[in-house]
Design a protein that fits this description.
- By secondary structure, the chain is α/β, with parallel strands linked by helices.
- It is about 40% helix and about 20% strand.
- An eight-stranded parallel beta sheet has the order 12-11-10-9-8-7-1-13. A three-stranded antiparallel beta sheet has the order 3-4-5, with no helix packed on it.
- Helix 6 links the parallel strand 9 and strand 10 (about 175-180).
- Helix 4 (about 105-125) runs parallel beside helix 5 (about 135-145), helix 8 (about 230-245) packs parallel to helix 9 and helix 9 runs parallel beside helix 10.
Amino acid sequence: MSERVLDIIGENFNTTRRLKVTGPRVVHDDGKIGVSYAGADGSRRLMDVTDIFPTDPAKLRVFQIPHVAHAVRRKDLDYIAWLINSQTAAGANIIDLCVDEIAVDPAVRHEVMAWLIPVAQQITDAIIAIDSSDPETIMTGLRVHDANRSRPAINSVNLEDGRQDLIKEAKARNALLFANASGRDGMPQDEHERVENLEQLMQLMDAAGIAMTDRYLDPLAFPVSTGSTFGPHYLEAVREIRRRYPQVHIFGGHSNASFGLPQRKIANNAFIILSMLAGCDTLMIDPVQTPPKDFVNFKLASDLVLGLDENALRYMTAFRTSSPSRTGRPASRTGTQ
């Protein structure tokens, strides 16, 4: 197909990510402890985590392996390549990179981001979303990003002081721009505050000349286990934003909704489908654990049934093609830096 059905933002390259020590990827072998993953040739490989594994039983009971942060600190290019390529192979066309938990010192985060962006661009042609709560960390990533390889994405702007300067940077650097509904004084309380906050950001983006199709709006999804209104607030905001702005992209941290729940995949799938029906055309997910293909097929079929696909053109084109993927997977490369 000439156009993507859904944009898929791979969320797995975040230094907050951890693995349970009892998980199936944790291997104990000859006194060593490793995290298993697939190498470029498909063989099983291990990233050694023995040196960060606690020996104190009390600490071990609460310990989780910070595998992404560990790989970044070690500059383990093979594991980093797997983190990126496993997501693009599953259908992600945007790879989110966040190193905020690598260190408390901002200077260390800047140094790490300055190293990581060129490495990631050698591994993949996918769009790299430079993600941080610190605008200067984002700016550090933008300065080293090679626009000749791919467009960057900025994750993200909101109404908090100091973040609006990134809007002008997005225009100057031809970057996709993620904007979330956080207000000047905190998180939005309902769908109305979500829409109002994003409306103000839309006005700033209008003034900067950001193309509608380069805007990715995030109304903010919160864990539904902590508030029964959080799901409806998000979905109502998506509907209203889609009504006002048919051309923008709308997404959210869709896996956030299931945080703290058992059988998270069931809740995630329900939330994603409801989000798509409300107007989301972009998903920020773990594409390895939550393969996008079924959601792409659902989007094609639901648009057909709801009369949004005139003469069934997109549906017919998608399912008559011999292409192995309808998510438009970008090419991947093994890290060489």
